[in-house]
Design goal:
homotetramer; alpha/beta; Rossmann fold; nine-stranded mixed beta sheet; 8 helices; globular
């Protein structure tokens, strides 16, 4: 049983009737419902958290009991407390998985873990939508499991290269857009004991999180990112000279 | 001609007579002197910058004209302004090289670019020193040029694994310590258009920056990290639908 | 239940009394016994295969039902049929895990999968032995699970850098040797749908495969390398122009 | 002055009038002419070599004096001697650069260096052609220098993912195809002391090697891949116990 938490800023649903129509219970509930879908793989217990919750939904105790955190944010990246972003980063380094969705490329936790700009190309007035084709570059990767040939999303917002991220440890998907651009849409990084996966689709004005293939990828990613051992907090080891594994005193003497 | 700037917090030299005796002009001047050493390779123009300089030695205009920045810091990481660290990060992503030395593993610019903890193992009371052997893992790498077999430093402070950094793009050196530990002591990362090299040796109470092999590696690294084109600032490309490389209107219509 | 096969050339045990004394049933049986050790993790069903078996122990049907192959070879690399090496490579690319042990760095399957020389430094007359310390560089990695601080092997043959392999996808262990050298002793690569792990210790004249920590690492590695989906044979996709996902005829016409 | 050799199997030009019309002096001469184009960067001295030359154009002495080898092959991969492929591999590991063009993804030297299948998706009857857009994913990379936004080739053969190669050390370009596919069309790997770059475009029935942007990329790649030091042949270091950097005798004694 993998314990997942879907975090959402939850503002588009509040302010935009079109988004509310597509996701009446919020983007987070659509994603969580997808995680709960029994597909024969390891079971996922999915909860949700919102920017407006106490401690922005991510108190220390909750993160300590989360295997994989999913992050959807767009308009309110700056409203996320630095302390919350730092807390998420710390838990990822200690082993918690992190799935960053769509516009989360500019979120504080993602940028802190990447160290880069997160910049990209995008379609202004992209809400009209265009066709996206998501191609696996390694059909044998666990995150691509169950994808037959490639995924097609009829209407999505375009994101294009260059994408300002470090070279990934593994590239899983690349997207083709009708308008002529391409984007590395599924990327894996190891950071400390934790795994990070960025997955591109999911603009709020499209029913992308009801697309069976997209939800399958997200379930796959949660299982891939779940820690397989306990947490390993990053720490400093102080080793006094007299406790060194091998004797060092002679050099010390010589150095005097 | 490569334009290098050696940044140093400059506090140990001020407060510690032993350090002052080894480096009467400061660690930065010893490193800069090493960079100026004519060894037949591309010439390096080396300047220095100090924490106590105006704008902590690194105003925007200066970074804009710097090819490679070298960073030595230890006690005063917290005194470095976040704005300065962010500025350094921005210039690295746009193409400036960055060489992080020794205790700079905990410096703000390095941690911002890595996204990890920078934690490691170290010898308490390590100032007595022990022998370090620095082995190239790829003798053909440009940063290992001119190293005959391996480098030996008779007295240094031990740093040991685990080192809390992302998997490097290239591992160049690994250190053996007399006390029984090992450390990945020369590591390369690409970040945006810039290159980052971490090089381990250089505790302030040892004459490490007078060691010919260590200085050779640092010169090699500066030449490796120097940008070979102009700067490429990370940016967002906004592409209106009517300016997409290929027509997208039909999908847009279909989506309405 | 993971199906593992331990392959061994089996010649040292036949010809050398000292090796036979340490491993009366052969190196392969010692390794297989380690895999069968119930440690609370996923169960491993371990079989063995020998160079002298029909089809050198690795017929097509057997590889097709093997999740993870372990390889110990030293003297007889050249005796392994090219067809067997190619078959192993093909199954790894399709998803079979491969654990290459010690002197397997020069084996045909490993060199075929790496594309490099596999060269390294070693201690002549190394059979006298020296102390090896195996340090995790990422204690949170699944292959390092259960290792407390680091492993110590009192007597082993030294292998030192430079090790002629591609930069690994993940570095898990680095070894310290009493004689002054270091070696990247636990390295991971993804190749196609398969995972490859090289693990250094295991010279035939030492009881290394009775060392609890070494056996723990090998069990961890088998679980890490086991494929989590079916096989994905590498293949060519031929897509006729009229079956392209999007229409291509207009360009074709324009090109005439 | 970089010494480059453009190798070509040279059969399509001989047998196909359309190819001969586009490349009357052969694909190799078109590529070599592009390398000689003075663009203000480091000068490249370009020679050519053919499958039909003595020793298939690549005798040991010639490779020893070659900085970067470019490879175009398609129909005759099997005719390349294993000894020639092994020789190329050896020189790459020692520092020679290798640029593999288009259908060279199935060439012996490339597959030997990658260790993977080189398989991909392609358009049957692709000679009608379709539009390809080649996007830089890192505009600051030296191989992308001088590319304004992206390259457009009006008619090319489609290659699509999955591409059976190891995760690259750096991804430089990704291609968009009119027919709906994507492909990682510019990929970098370090192998030993040498650098390998795969660049996708260049089907023989299109005038791709007269496209200014394509030729610019190839020149950039040659400069990137040129070795910056001497050759470093991969070798084994044998270190007798009595010549170990640190004394090992005591453990040896203890082990008896």
């Amino acid at each position: 049983m993998i314990r997942a938490v879907v975090w959402n800023e939850g503002l588009h649903e509040r302010d935009n009737a079109k988004v509310r129509e597509i996701y009446p219970d919020g983007l987070h509930e659509a994603i969580a419902a997808g995680l709960r879908d029994p597909d024969g793989g390891e079971e996922i217990a999915a909860e949700t958290a919102l920017l407006t919750d106490p401690e922005q939904g991510l108190p220390e105790e909750r993160l300590a009991e989360t295997d994989v955190l999913l992050w959807w944010g767009h308009r309110a990246h700056e409203q996320v407390d630095d302390a919350v972003a730092e807390r998420v980063q710390k838990h990822v380094l200690a082993g918690m998985g992190l799935i960053v969705l769509h516009s989360g490329h500019f979120s504080k936790p993602f940028l802190r873990l990447m160290g880069t700009s997160g910049t990209l190309r995008w379609r202004v007035a992209g809400e009209a939508g265009e066709r996206e084709r998501i191609w696996p570059v390694n059909p044998g990767h666990p995150i691509a499991r169950g994808i037959d040939d490639h995924l097609v999303i009829e209407g999505e917002e375009m994101y294009g290269e260059p994408f300002g991220v470090p070279e990934p440890d593994e590239t899983v998907f690349i997207s083709w857009f009708q308008g002529g651009e391409v984007f590395r849409s599924g990327l894996c990084w190891n950071r400390g004991a934790g795994k990070v996966f960025y997955f591109r689709p999911g603009h709020e004005t499209f029913p992308t999180y009801r697309h069976a293939g997209v939800l399958r990828v997200i379930r796959n990613a949660v299982r891939w990112a779940a820690p397989r051992g306990g947490r390993h907090a990053q720490k400093v080891w102080r080793v006094p000279a007299e406790q060194a594994p091998e004797p060092v005193w002679r050099t010390a003497e010589a150095a005097l």
